[in-house]
Amino acid sequence: MVIIYTKQLHETGLMPEGNNVVVMDPKDVDACIPALQEMRKFVDKISIYDLCPSTKNTEEIIPVNDHVNRTGENPLIGRQGKLNVEFPDITSLYVKKENGVTTFCCGNHEPLEKIEYPSMYLSNISILARVLDFQEIHGYIVK
User: Fold this and answer.
1) Rg, the chain, Cα only
2) Are strands 45-51 and 21-24 parallel, antiparallel or unpaired?
């Protein structure tokens, strides 16, 4: 299994480096696609960690069971032909955890203090991973 940290999380220094850790900028979708395609040649299970913006950094890792994309972006728009897909069914996208939450992926657009489990761009990488046929996608947000 490969662990992916979003650039936004990595820049906080909250998470340790490791051999199976890859840092991706989910806002740079055109760089994420070939990186994920190459990764998919070797693994079919990934864990994606994104920042849960908060005024209190607790270093708490919260499992994600679902997301609501409120970034105002969809990583597939304009890339459907390149990926040979229209819009995939992302029902049950993440491996469910007993204490998992639904995160609201807000990018930089929402007043995050009003949302219980905000995240930045977890949805971008997760949607691409589904399209690229990763069999298990584990999602986490780090507060």
Assistant:
1) 14
2) unpaired
* pTM greater than 0.90 (yes/no): yes
Which SS3 state, helix, strand or coil, does residue 29 take? Answer: helix
Task: Answer for the pair 78, 94: CB distance below 8 angstroms, yes or no.
Answer: no
| Spacing of C-alpha 17 from chain mean position | 18
The token pair at 121 is: 């761009």
Phi/psi-derived region of residue 93, left when phi > 0, alpha when psi is between -120 and 50, beta in every other case: alpha
CB 11 within 8 A of CB 49: no
Helix, strand, or coil (residue 80): helix
So what CATH class is 2-142?
Answer: alpha beta
Contact in structure between 72 and 107 (CB atoms under 8 Å)? yes
**pLDDT tens per residue across span 62-113:** 999 999 999 988 899 888 888 888 778 888 999 999 999 999 999 877 666 6
Q: Give the tokens for residue 77.
A: 């728009």
Euclidean distance between CA atoms 108 and 34, whole angstroms? 25
